[in-house]
Sequence to fold (273 residues):
Amino acid sequence: MSPADHIANVHIYREPRCRAIDFEAVAAGIGEWLPRTAVTLRAPLLEGWLENASAEDAEALAMRLAEAKVRSFDRPARTGQRVLPGEVGYELRRLQNRDGEVYGILYDAWLFTDAARMLLPAAEARLENVHVIFTNQLIGTWDLADRRYHARTVVCGAPSILSTSGMVEAPARAPGYYLARRSSEALGLQEEEKMELARSYAGDCLRLDDPRLTDTAQGLVMQAVTYRLTGEPFCDDRDCRLFNAHWQSDLIRTQTGGGYCTRHAEMFARLQA
Ligand SMILES: [Zn+2]
Fold:
């Protein structure tokens, strides 16, 4: 996809099951950086579409999602892969239950994107429209080099998909945490002592109910915007909010209290000229 020279609209589709993110604040934050862009906050795309869909169309969407589900970390999901009995019904029930606590199912990000793209309004397909869909499920991309799935926080495309559980699960925690956890197993610590250990590392990673997810979500939406403008969502600058964080500490540092590097801040400013 060739880059857009301006962004007229950013449409953000909320995830009703994620209560930690203040979506109004996310939209307002994007509006501050892009005052000439209309930022709209919308109802959840898939769930909203389902409300007016025929039973047949609803089942077709559920089938696409069931096909997008990653069944094995070391085998890529494909359209047409065998769906087990009950999985289509399960997907339908999951979408219909907006209070559901189920999260962390891993979907192939590109198959999920394809399923969502079909639901976008045709009149808003132009490059100047950025659509960002929040999901509480995990999205992953297949890595050709090491032949396995990697969970992602954001996968940029049309639409871009942003995973709230991905923010918690995808970037790794501090090496010390894993080392300590392994040692606690080796030492045969009691449950209580293991809990104490987990608590001592609690601040170094995002949680599903973490208020820091709002700032994090804002920076990740800007990655989707940057992707549309330049074809590249990420920045090499470790202090820029567009930095592609592989560690929780990097994600938290860049997204909470961080800013954009001079190059990107100037790029956003030029859009307003
Ligand atoms: Zn930057």
User: Anything to note?
Assistant: Residues 26 and 218 are 5 Å apart (CA to CA). The radius of gyration is 19 Å. Residues 9-170+209-272 form a domain with the Collagenase (Catalytic Domain) fold (CATH 3.40.390.10). The longest strand covers residues 129-135.
